[in-house]
Amino acid sequence: MNSAIFVLAIITALAFILAIIQVKGKTHQLEEWAVGGRSFGVILVFILMGGELYTTFTFLGGSSLAYNKGGACYYILCYSPIAYVLGYWLLPAIWKYAKEHNLISQSDFYIRKYDSKALGVLVSLIGFIALIPYLILQIKGLGIIVSETSYGAISANSAIWLCSALMVIYVVVAGMHGSVRVAVVKDVLILAIVFFLGIYLPYHYYGGIENTINLVETRHPGFTMISNKDFNPVWFISTVLLSAIGLYLWPHSFTSLYTSQSAKVLKKNAILMPLYQFLLMFVFIIGFVAALQLPGLNKAQSDLALIRLVINTFSPWFVGVIGAAGVLTALVPGSIILLSIATLFIKNIMIPVIPACAKKEMLLVKLSVPFIMLIALVANSYGGETIVGLLIVGYGLVSQLFPALVFSFCRNNPVSKLGAISGMLIGVMIMFISILTKVNFNDYLPTVLNGLNVGIIALIANLIVTLIISSGERIYLR
Predict the structure, then answer these.
(1) Cβ proximity of 39 and 259 under 8 Å
(2) Element (H, E) at 150
(3) Closest CA to 330 of 58, 35, 79, 17
(4) How far apart are CA 81 and CA 271, in angstroms?
(5) Angle at Cα 446 formed by Cα 441 and Cα 249, nearest 5°?
(6) What is the pTM of this model?
(7) DSSP 245-272
(8) 284, 287, 348, 361: which one has the fewest Cβ atoms less than 10 Å from its Cβ?
(9) How large is the greatest C-alpha to C-alpha distance in the chain, in angstroms?
(10) What is the pLDDT of residues 55-102, one digit of tens each?
(11) 61 phi, psi to nearest 5 deg
(12) How confident is the model at residue 421, as a pLDDT?
């Protein structure tokens, strides 16, 4: 066994043990298992939400985007701060309502607000469809990281199945408490490693960050800047807006905000979360160093730019540390996603059809965890382009929940349950047409709007239909 595998295995095992110890008596109730008994303070909520937002996609994808597109990577920096501003006002209101009515899942919120189990099922299905590809992304990234940092001694497929089994065990045993414990280890490790790499690599190879940027610009003029070649301004603005709207509408984000012990904690969290953006800057710098050191990687290989650069620079034991950090960036969001899907599937899709007592409901949720992971693993093996397409439109799908959410806080909500259902169905239908067919909705828009993100088009159609149906229903009932 080489030193990289040894270090990777030790850190992963320690994180797993930390996740499952001292959970006796904490996971017998769904509220405790799924949302941590609503007991997490500022630090734990900060770590948990950071853990689910900064994933293998950020770890590998951020440096890959910088490697491939240069300044285009700054897009990732733009939408999160806007979402945090929205979250400062919106999340505390959601939490207060959830606490008052003892809500567990995202769908519970819509069911209670609109007194509609049908709407709850629809919200659950949208969340389920959007989250499965997101879960697949985590396990794909996990397999790549372990395979590369073990110098090929562990195949990607073997790593995926082994780590998925570990994830299933600690989700079933420890629930949200396990996820937040692993998130603590993950955050400490990933922050230290990314800051170190982002500073050390440019100094090691080129004498500093400024020299690195200048050399990149000398070899590839304009590479570190945003240009119309990479981003149509209409596409850029609309995509940033859509992503900001959708950031907290993922079902696992709803689950995480429920864990807070108070609304005040969520306001403080919204203030602190932009600190994570500094992490991304160092990821981009690593990508720029890789562009100089590893030129010519194709699109698939560019996802490995960070890891290949690390392997070429450091001893195997340190490569193992970085591999372990990458594994944890998959385990934390993956476990929260898995937990959220299981809760949605049983509580809001199955139980309305097959009622069960609280004890049986808890048992069914836990039993569904390995079943859902198996679906993701099979889809990972055979999913192909459809899975990738669904992931791309994931933000577009979950953003269709936004109008009904925002209007639900109006003193006199203008949206009816039928209006909310109709609007969501239209929005989701547009998203699926755009990904499953060759229809380009931009062809039907004025030239000035060329490049408008299809998710925004779907959201506008959703809003129009929602308000028309709701208004028509009110008029009819009069």
Answers:
(1) yes
(2) none
(3) 58
(4) 10
(5) 50
(6) 0.88
(7) HHTTTSHHHHHHHHTBS-HHHHHHHHHH
(8) 361
(9) 76
(10) 776 677 778 878 887 877 777 788 888 999 999 999 999 999 999 999
(11) -70, -35
(12) 96
Structure tokens, 360: 């049986």
Residue carrying structure tokens 């308000």: 467
| Backbone region of residue 2 per phi and psi (left: phi > 0; alpha: psi in -120 to 50; beta: other values) | beta
Query: Quick check: 186 and 51 in contact, CB under 8 A?
Result: yes
Long-range contacts of 469-474, Cβ-Cβ distance < 8 Å, separation of 24 or more: 469/416, 469/418, 469/419, 469/422, 469/423, 470/414, 470/415, 470/416, 470/418, 470/419, 470/420, 471/414, 471/419, 473/416, 473/418, 473/419, 474/416
Confidence (pLDDT) at 28 = 66
Q: Are 172 and 190 in contact (CB under 8 A)?
A: no
User: Could you read off the pLDDT of 184-232 as tens digits, one per residue?
Assistant: 888 888 888 888 999 999 999 999 999 998 998 888 888 887 766 656 7
Q: Which are the contacts of 438, defined by CB distance < 8 A and separation ≥ 6? A: none
pLDDT of 390 over the 70 cut: no
- DSSP-derived secondary structure for 155-202: -HHHHHHHHHHHHHHHHHHHHHHHHHHHHHHHHHHHHHHHHHHHHHHH
The token pair at 100 is 């008052």
Question: End-to-end CA distance of the chain, in Å?
Answer: 76
Give the single-character DSSP code of 208: S
Q: In whole numbers, what is the pLDDT of the chain averaged over residues?
A: 86
Where in 344-424 does DSSP place strands (E)? Answer: none
Specify whether the CB–CB gap between 289 and 194 falls below 8 A: no
Q: Identify the residue whose tokens are 């709007």.
A: 449
Please enumerate in sequence order all residues whose Cβ is within 8 A of that of 287, keeping only pairs 6 or more positions apart, or say none.
Answer: 62, 63, 64, 65, 66, 67, 73, 305, 306
> How far, in Å, CA of 364 to CA of 394, rounded?
27
The pLDDT tens digits of the residues spanning 235-293 come to 888 888 998 999 899 998 888 899 999 999 999 999 988 888 888 888 889 989 998 99
pLDDT of 229 reads: 61
Element (H, E) at 230: none
pLDDT digits (tens, 9 = 90+) for 286-325: 989 998 998 887 766 777 888 889 999 999 999 999 888 8
Residue 40 pairs in a beta bridge with 260
Single-letter residue type at 237: I
Q: Which two tokens stand for residue 44?
A: 């734990």
